[in-house]
Amino acid sequence: MDIYLFLLILGPTNDLGYMRRKVMKVIHLLTGGEIGGIEVLCKDIGILAPYENMFCFVTCEGPIYNQMKELGLSVCSLTGGHKFSIRKLKKLTTLVKDYDVIAVHHGDPYLNLYYCLLSKIRRDKKYVRIVHSCYEGKPQNYTQIKFFMSKMLLKKAIGCSDACIFVSKAGLKSHLKAFSNLSTKCTYVVYNGIGMEKLERGRKNISQRCESIRILFVGRLHKNKGIPLLLAAAAILKEKYNIKLTIVGDGPEWDSLHKQAEKLDIIDVVSFAGQQIDIIPYLENADIFVYPSVWEEVFGISIVEAMAFGLIPIANRVGGIPEIIRDGVNGFLTGEKSANGVKRAIENAIAILGTEKEAEMRTLSKNTAEKFSIQNTVDNLTNVLERTLNDNDENRKVR
Whole domain around residue 336: which residue ranges? Predict the structure, then answer.
Protein backbone atom coordinates (compact mmCIF):
# COMPACT_ATOMS: atom_id res chain seq x y z
CA MET A 1 0.00 0.00 0.00
CA ASP A 2 2.90 2.38 0.81
CA ILE A 3 4.21 1.95 -2.72
CA TYR A 4 0.92 3.00 -4.28
CA LEU A 5 0.69 6.02 -1.99
CA PHE A 6 4.15 6.95 -3.17
CA LEU A 7 3.00 6.64 -6.79
CA LEU A 8 -0.05 8.79 -6.19
CA ILE A 9 2.06 11.49 -4.57
CA LEU A 10 4.65 11.39 -7.36
CA GLY A 11 2.01 11.32 -10.08
CA PRO A 12 2.40 10.88 -13.85
CA THR A 13 4.54 13.04 -16.09
CA ASN A 14 3.56 14.55 -19.37
CA ASP A 15 6.69 15.02 -21.46
CA LEU A 16 6.00 13.90 -25.03
CA GLY A 17 9.26 15.31 -26.35
CA TYR A 18 10.38 11.88 -27.54
CA MET A 19 8.25 12.31 -30.66
CA ARG A 20 10.55 15.11 -31.76
CA ARG A 21 13.82 13.26 -31.23
CA LYS A 22 15.71 11.99 -34.25
CA VAL A 23 17.55 9.19 -32.46
CA MET A 24 15.57 6.63 -30.51
CA LYS A 25 16.80 6.04 -26.96
CA VAL A 26 16.13 2.70 -25.27
CA ILE A 27 16.86 1.66 -21.70
CA HIS A 28 17.04 -2.10 -21.08
CA LEU A 29 16.23 -3.51 -17.64
CA LEU A 30 18.04 -6.71 -16.70
CA THR A 31 18.41 -8.67 -13.49
CA GLY A 32 22.15 -9.39 -13.75
CA GLY A 33 25.18 -9.43 -16.03
CA GLU A 34 26.28 -13.05 -15.79
CA ILE A 35 27.15 -15.11 -18.87
CA GLY A 36 23.90 -16.16 -20.55
CA GLY A 37 22.01 -15.94 -23.81
CA ILE A 38 19.99 -12.86 -22.81
CA GLU A 39 23.03 -11.00 -21.54
CA VAL A 40 25.15 -11.76 -24.62
CA LEU A 41 22.24 -10.73 -26.86
CA CYS A 42 21.98 -7.38 -25.07
CA LYS A 43 25.71 -6.82 -25.47
CA ASP A 44 25.42 -7.46 -29.22
CA ILE A 45 22.43 -5.13 -29.44
CA GLY A 46 24.50 -2.43 -27.75
CA ILE A 47 27.28 -2.87 -30.30
CA LEU A 48 25.17 -3.03 -33.48
CA ALA A 49 21.95 -1.09 -32.85
CA PRO A 50 21.55 2.21 -34.77
CA TYR A 51 19.87 3.80 -31.74
CA GLU A 52 21.11 4.75 -28.28
CA ASN A 53 21.01 2.10 -25.55
CA MET A 54 21.46 1.99 -21.80
CA PHE A 55 21.65 -1.35 -19.95
CA CYS A 56 20.57 -1.24 -16.33
CA PHE A 57 21.31 -4.15 -13.97
CA VAL A 58 19.20 -4.16 -10.82
CA THR A 59 20.41 -7.23 -8.91
CA CYS A 60 24.00 -8.21 -9.79
CA GLU A 61 26.84 -7.44 -12.16
CA GLY A 62 29.05 -10.12 -13.77
CA PRO A 63 31.32 -10.90 -16.75
CA ILE A 64 28.97 -9.55 -19.42
CA TYR A 65 28.38 -6.38 -17.44
CA ASN A 66 32.17 -5.96 -17.28
CA GLN A 67 32.51 -6.62 -21.01
CA MET A 68 29.91 -3.97 -21.75
CA LYS A 69 31.84 -1.45 -19.69
CA GLU A 70 35.10 -2.33 -21.45
CA LEU A 71 33.40 -1.90 -24.83
CA GLY A 72 32.25 1.56 -23.84
CA LEU A 73 28.55 0.69 -23.78
CA SER A 74 26.28 2.66 -21.46
CA VAL A 75 25.63 0.59 -18.35
CA CYS A 76 24.18 1.29 -14.95
CA SER A 77 24.41 -0.85 -11.83
CA LEU A 78 21.74 -0.64 -9.14
CA THR A 79 23.07 -3.73 -7.39
CA GLY A 80 23.35 -4.11 -3.65
CA GLY A 81 20.72 -4.14 -0.96
CA HIS A 82 17.33 -5.78 -1.31
CA LYS A 83 16.04 -6.91 -4.70
CA PHE A 84 13.25 -4.38 -4.37
CA SER A 85 13.54 -1.00 -2.68
CA ILE A 86 12.07 2.46 -2.99
CA ARG A 87 15.65 3.74 -3.38
CA LYS A 88 16.12 1.68 -6.53
CA LEU A 89 12.70 2.66 -7.83
CA LYS A 90 13.55 6.36 -7.40
CA LYS A 91 16.85 5.88 -9.23
CA LEU A 92 15.10 4.07 -12.07
CA THR A 93 12.50 6.82 -12.26
CA THR A 94 15.28 9.37 -12.70
CA LEU A 95 17.18 7.21 -15.20
CA VAL A 96 14.28 6.56 -17.57
CA LYS A 97 13.45 10.27 -17.81
CA ASP A 98 15.78 10.71 -20.79
CA TYR A 99 14.73 7.57 -22.68
CA ASP A 100 11.91 6.90 -25.14
CA VAL A 101 11.46 3.17 -24.70
CA ILE A 102 11.75 1.04 -21.57
CA ALA A 103 12.45 -2.60 -22.43
CA VAL A 104 12.59 -5.40 -19.88
CA HIS A 105 14.27 -8.73 -20.63
CA HIS A 106 14.51 -11.10 -17.67
CA GLY A 107 11.39 -12.68 -16.20
CA ASP A 108 12.35 -12.10 -12.56
CA PRO A 109 9.23 -11.04 -10.57
CA TYR A 110 11.05 -8.10 -8.98
CA LEU A 111 12.08 -6.83 -12.41
CA ASN A 112 8.47 -7.06 -13.57
CA LEU A 113 7.45 -5.10 -10.45
CA TYR A 114 9.85 -2.26 -11.27
CA TYR A 115 8.63 -2.30 -14.88
CA CYS A 116 4.95 -2.12 -13.88
CA LEU A 117 5.55 0.69 -11.39
CA LEU A 118 7.54 2.69 -13.92
CA SER A 119 4.65 2.43 -16.35
CA LYS A 120 2.46 4.14 -13.74
CA ILE A 121 5.03 6.79 -12.88
CA ARG A 122 6.31 7.63 -16.37
CA ARG A 123 3.24 7.39 -18.58
CA ASP A 124 4.94 9.35 -21.34
CA LYS A 125 7.23 6.44 -22.23
CA LYS A 126 6.74 3.38 -24.41
CA TYR A 127 7.01 0.01 -22.67
CA VAL A 128 8.23 -3.16 -24.36
CA ARG A 129 8.32 -6.62 -22.76
CA ILE A 130 10.87 -8.89 -24.47
CA VAL A 131 10.05 -12.48 -23.55
CA HIS A 132 12.92 -14.98 -23.72
CA SER A 133 11.06 -18.10 -22.59
CA CYS A 134 8.04 -20.28 -23.13
CA TYR A 135 5.42 -20.16 -20.41
CA GLU A 136 5.26 -23.48 -18.58
CA GLY A 137 3.26 -22.67 -15.47
CA LYS A 138 4.55 -23.25 -11.96
CA PRO A 139 8.35 -23.76 -11.62
CA GLN A 140 9.25 -26.67 -9.35
CA ASN A 141 11.12 -24.46 -6.87
CA TYR A 142 8.21 -22.00 -6.47
CA THR A 143 5.72 -22.18 -3.63
CA GLN A 144 2.08 -21.71 -4.57
CA ILE A 145 2.10 -18.15 -3.19
CA LYS A 146 5.31 -17.23 -5.00
CA PHE A 147 3.93 -18.67 -8.24
CA PHE A 148 0.67 -16.73 -7.86
CA MET A 149 2.53 -13.45 -7.26
CA SER A 150 4.95 -14.14 -10.12
CA LYS A 151 2.16 -14.89 -12.59
CA MET A 152 0.17 -11.86 -11.45
CA LEU A 153 3.18 -9.57 -11.99
CA LEU A 154 3.86 -11.06 -15.43
CA LYS A 155 0.22 -10.53 -16.37
CA LYS A 156 0.46 -6.91 -15.18
CA ALA A 157 3.70 -6.45 -17.14
CA ILE A 158 2.00 -7.74 -20.28
CA GLY A 159 -0.98 -5.49 -19.66
CA CYS A 160 1.09 -2.33 -19.31
CA SER A 161 3.21 -3.02 -22.39
CA ASP A 162 2.85 -1.19 -25.68
CA ALA A 163 4.46 -4.19 -27.38
CA CYS A 164 5.50 -7.72 -26.43
CA ILE A 165 8.34 -9.29 -28.38
CA PHE A 166 8.88 -13.06 -28.34
CA VAL A 167 12.02 -14.84 -29.51
CA SER A 168 10.11 -17.71 -31.14
CA LYS A 169 6.63 -18.65 -32.30
CA ALA A 170 6.53 -21.27 -29.55
CA GLY A 171 7.13 -18.57 -26.93
CA LEU A 172 4.31 -16.45 -28.32
CA LYS A 173 1.92 -19.40 -28.54
CA SER A 174 2.53 -20.49 -24.94
CA HIS A 175 1.89 -16.99 -23.57
CA LEU A 176 -1.22 -16.42 -25.69
CA LYS A 177 -2.61 -19.60 -24.19
CA ALA A 178 -1.79 -18.56 -20.61
CA PHE A 179 -2.65 -14.84 -20.62
CA SER A 180 -5.99 -13.58 -21.88
CA ASN A 181 -4.82 -9.96 -21.78
CA LEU A 182 -2.10 -10.55 -24.37
CA SER A 183 -3.32 -8.96 -27.59
CA THR A 184 -2.01 -10.24 -30.93
CA LYS A 185 -2.15 -6.64 -32.18
CA CYS A 186 0.94 -5.73 -30.17
CA THR A 187 2.89 -9.00 -30.33
CA TYR A 188 5.90 -9.71 -32.52
CA VAL A 189 8.36 -12.55 -33.07
CA VAL A 190 12.01 -11.51 -33.36
CA TYR A 191 14.38 -14.46 -33.35
CA ASN A 192 17.61 -14.27 -31.40
CA GLY A 193 20.78 -14.13 -33.46
CA ILE A 194 24.44 -15.07 -33.14
CA GLY A 195 27.41 -12.75 -33.54
CA MET A 196 28.94 -12.04 -36.93
CA GLU A 197 32.34 -13.30 -35.73
CA LYS A 198 30.93 -16.77 -35.12
CA LEU A 199 29.23 -16.77 -38.54
CA GLU A 200 32.45 -15.71 -40.28
CA ARG A 201 34.57 -18.25 -38.41
CA GLY A 202 31.91 -20.88 -39.00
CA ARG A 203 31.94 -20.33 -42.78
CA LYS A 204 35.65 -21.15 -42.81
CA ASN A 205 35.33 -24.17 -40.55
CA ILE A 206 35.90 -27.50 -42.30
CA SER A 207 35.12 -30.68 -40.43
CA GLN A 208 38.26 -32.75 -39.86
CA ARG A 209 37.73 -36.44 -39.25
CA CYS A 210 39.40 -37.79 -36.11
CA GLU A 211 39.74 -41.26 -34.67
CA SER A 212 37.04 -40.49 -32.15
CA ILE A 213 33.53 -39.14 -32.69
CA ARG A 214 33.53 -35.76 -30.96
CA ILE A 215 30.26 -34.85 -29.23
CA LEU A 216 29.72 -31.40 -27.68
CA PHE A 217 27.26 -29.76 -25.31
CA VAL A 218 27.35 -26.04 -24.48
CA GLY A 219 24.98 -24.53 -21.94
CA ARG A 220 24.13 -23.96 -18.31
CA LEU A 221 24.45 -27.05 -16.12
CA HIS A 222 20.85 -27.02 -14.95
CA LYS A 223 18.45 -29.91 -14.58
CA ASN A 224 16.21 -28.42 -17.28
CA LYS A 225 18.97 -28.91 -19.86
CA GLY A 226 18.69 -32.71 -19.73
CA ILE A 227 22.43 -33.36 -19.43
CA PRO A 228 21.88 -36.55 -17.35
CA LEU A 229 20.17 -38.02 -20.44
CA LEU A 230 23.26 -37.22 -22.52
CA LEU A 231 25.58 -38.83 -19.97
CA ALA A 232 23.41 -41.94 -19.82
CA ALA A 233 23.36 -42.09 -23.62
CA ALA A 234 27.16 -41.72 -23.70
CA ALA A 235 27.51 -44.71 -21.36
CA ILE A 236 25.59 -46.87 -23.84
CA LEU A 237 27.35 -45.47 -26.93
CA LYS A 238 30.78 -45.97 -25.35
CA GLU A 239 30.35 -49.74 -25.61
CA LYS A 240 30.00 -49.55 -29.40
CA TYR A 241 31.71 -46.38 -30.61
CA ASN A 242 34.90 -44.46 -29.97
CA ILE A 243 33.32 -41.28 -28.62
CA LYS A 244 34.58 -38.20 -26.79
CA LEU A 245 32.03 -35.99 -25.03
CA THR A 246 32.87 -32.42 -24.01
CA ILE A 247 30.52 -30.49 -21.73
CA VAL A 248 31.06 -26.72 -21.68
CA GLY A 249 29.29 -24.73 -19.00
CA ASP A 250 28.77 -24.26 -15.31
CA GLY A 251 25.78 -24.32 -13.01
CA PRO A 252 24.08 -25.87 -10.00
CA GLU A 253 24.29 -29.43 -11.35
CA TRP A 254 28.10 -29.45 -11.68
CA ASP A 255 28.74 -31.80 -8.73
CA SER A 256 25.85 -34.16 -9.46
CA LEU A 257 26.88 -34.51 -13.11
CA HIS A 258 30.45 -35.37 -12.14
CA LYS A 259 29.14 -37.98 -9.73
CA GLN A 260 26.87 -39.42 -12.41
CA ALA A 261 29.79 -39.64 -14.86
CA GLU A 262 31.84 -41.51 -12.25
CA LYS A 263 28.96 -43.86 -11.46
CA LEU A 264 28.44 -44.61 -15.16
CA ASP A 265 32.19 -45.22 -15.56
CA ILE A 266 32.54 -42.73 -18.44
CA ILE A 267 35.13 -40.39 -16.94
CA ASP A 268 37.55 -41.58 -19.62
CA VAL A 269 35.31 -40.28 -22.44
CA VAL A 270 33.75 -37.21 -20.78
CA SER A 271 35.46 -33.86 -20.28
CA PHE A 272 33.93 -31.04 -18.21
CA ALA A 273 35.41 -27.80 -19.56
CA GLY A 274 33.59 -25.41 -17.21
CA GLN A 275 32.33 -21.98 -18.15
CA GLN A 276 34.00 -20.48 -21.22
CA ILE A 277 33.60 -16.96 -22.57
CA ASP A 278 35.07 -18.04 -25.93
CA ILE A 279 33.45 -21.26 -27.17
CA ILE A 280 34.74 -21.04 -30.76
CA PRO A 281 37.67 -23.44 -30.16
CA TYR A 282 35.20 -26.06 -28.94
CA LEU A 283 32.89 -25.55 -31.93
CA GLU A 284 35.85 -25.94 -34.28
CA ASN A 285 36.75 -29.29 -32.76
CA ALA A 286 33.48 -31.20 -32.67
CA ASP A 287 31.39 -33.32 -35.02
CA ILE A 288 28.01 -33.55 -33.30
CA PHE A 289 26.27 -31.04 -31.03
CA VAL A 290 23.69 -32.37 -28.56
CA TYR A 291 21.22 -30.16 -26.69
CA PRO A 292 18.90 -32.52 -24.76
CA SER A 293 16.76 -29.89 -23.02
CA VAL A 294 13.75 -31.42 -21.27
CA TRP A 295 11.73 -28.22 -20.79
CA GLU A 296 10.01 -26.00 -23.33
CA GLU A 297 13.18 -24.32 -24.58
CA VAL A 298 12.01 -21.13 -26.27
CA PHE A 299 14.81 -21.04 -28.85
CA GLY A 300 18.31 -22.47 -28.25
CA ILE A 301 20.95 -19.98 -29.36
CA SER A 302 23.78 -22.45 -28.70
CA ILE A 303 22.21 -24.77 -31.28
CA VAL A 304 22.45 -22.02 -33.92
CA GLU A 305 26.07 -21.33 -32.92
CA ALA A 306 26.90 -25.01 -33.42
CA MET A 307 25.11 -25.07 -36.78
CA ALA A 308 27.13 -22.04 -37.91
CA PHE A 309 30.23 -24.25 -37.66
CA GLY A 310 28.59 -27.08 -39.58
CA LEU A 311 28.09 -29.38 -36.60
CA ILE A 312 25.29 -31.91 -36.86
CA PRO A 313 22.76 -30.70 -34.26
CA ILE A 314 20.68 -33.02 -32.11
CA ALA A 315 17.97 -31.85 -29.72
CA ASN A 316 14.76 -32.89 -28.06
CA ARG A 317 11.59 -31.84 -29.87
CA VAL A 318 10.56 -29.13 -27.39
CA GLY A 319 9.53 -25.46 -27.49
CA GLY A 320 10.97 -23.42 -30.34
CA ILE A 321 13.72 -25.89 -31.28
CA PRO A 322 11.72 -27.36 -34.22
CA GLU A 323 11.73 -23.81 -35.63
CA ILE A 324 15.52 -24.24 -36.02
CA ILE A 325 16.08 -27.96 -36.67
CA ARG A 326 14.21 -29.89 -39.35
CA ASP A 327 14.47 -33.54 -38.42
CA GLY A 328 16.61 -35.48 -40.90
CA VAL A 329 17.25 -32.38 -43.01
CA ASN A 330 19.63 -30.06 -41.15
CA GLY A 331 19.86 -32.08 -37.94
CA PHE A 332 18.01 -34.62 -35.82
CA LEU A 333 15.18 -34.27 -33.31
CA THR A 334 14.49 -36.91 -30.69
CA GLY A 335 11.08 -38.47 -30.46
CA GLU A 336 11.18 -38.74 -26.67
CA LYS A 337 12.87 -37.07 -23.69
CA SER A 338 14.94 -40.07 -22.63
CA ALA A 339 18.48 -41.42 -22.69
CA ASN A 340 17.43 -43.92 -25.36
CA GLY A 341 15.90 -41.14 -27.44
CA VAL A 342 19.14 -39.15 -27.27
CA LYS A 343 21.20 -42.27 -28.01
CA ARG A 344 19.16 -43.14 -31.10
CA ALA A 345 19.46 -39.59 -32.43
CA ILE A 346 23.25 -39.63 -31.94
CA GLU A 347 23.41 -43.00 -33.72
CA ASN A 348 21.48 -41.48 -36.63
CA ALA A 349 24.15 -38.79 -36.85
CA ILE A 350 27.00 -41.28 -36.55
CA ALA A 351 25.47 -43.35 -39.35
CA ILE A 352 25.87 -40.55 -41.92
CA LEU A 353 29.45 -39.60 -41.01
CA GLY A 354 31.68 -39.92 -44.06
CA THR A 355 28.76 -39.96 -46.50
CA GLU A 356 27.32 -37.42 -48.95
CA LYS A 357 24.40 -37.01 -46.55
CA GLU A 358 26.80 -35.69 -43.91
CA ALA A 359 28.21 -33.04 -46.26
CA GLU A 360 24.69 -32.02 -47.32
CA MET A 361 23.46 -31.77 -43.73
CA ARG A 362 26.47 -29.71 -42.65
CA THR A 363 25.87 -27.28 -45.52
CA LEU A 364 22.18 -26.95 -44.66
CA SER A 365 23.11 -26.51 -41.01
CA LYS A 366 25.38 -23.55 -41.88
CA ASN A 367 22.72 -22.06 -44.18
CA THR A 368 20.18 -22.19 -41.36
CA ALA A 369 22.53 -20.38 -39.01
CA GLU A 370 22.96 -17.55 -41.53
CA LYS A 371 19.24 -16.77 -41.18
CA PHE A 372 19.68 -16.27 -37.45
CA SER A 373 22.39 -13.61 -37.52
CA ILE A 374 22.55 -10.92 -34.85
CA GLN A 375 22.33 -8.32 -37.62
CA ASN A 376 18.93 -9.70 -38.66
CA THR A 377 17.87 -9.66 -35.00
CA VAL A 378 18.91 -6.03 -34.54
CA ASP A 379 17.27 -4.95 -37.81
CA ASN A 380 13.97 -6.62 -36.91
CA LEU A 381 14.08 -5.35 -33.32
CA THR A 382 14.75 -1.82 -34.55
CA ASN A 383 11.72 -1.98 -36.84
CA VAL A 384 9.45 -3.13 -34.01
CA LEU A 385 10.73 -0.52 -31.55
CA GLU A 386 10.40 2.31 -34.09
CA ARG A 387 6.90 1.18 -34.99
CA THR A 388 5.96 1.08 -31.30
CA LEU A 389 7.49 4.48 -30.66
CA ASN A 390 5.57 6.03 -33.54
CA ASP A 391 2.21 4.52 -32.62
CA ASN A 392 -0.41 7.13 -31.75
CA ASP A 393 -1.57 7.29 -28.16
CA GLU A 394 -4.99 6.04 -29.32
CA ASN A 395 -3.43 2.70 -30.24
CA ARG A 396 -1.60 2.24 -26.95
CA LYS A 397 -2.74 -0.40 -24.54
CA VAL A 398 -4.73 0.80 -21.53
CA ARG A 399 -2.64 0.54 -18.39
Answer: 196-372
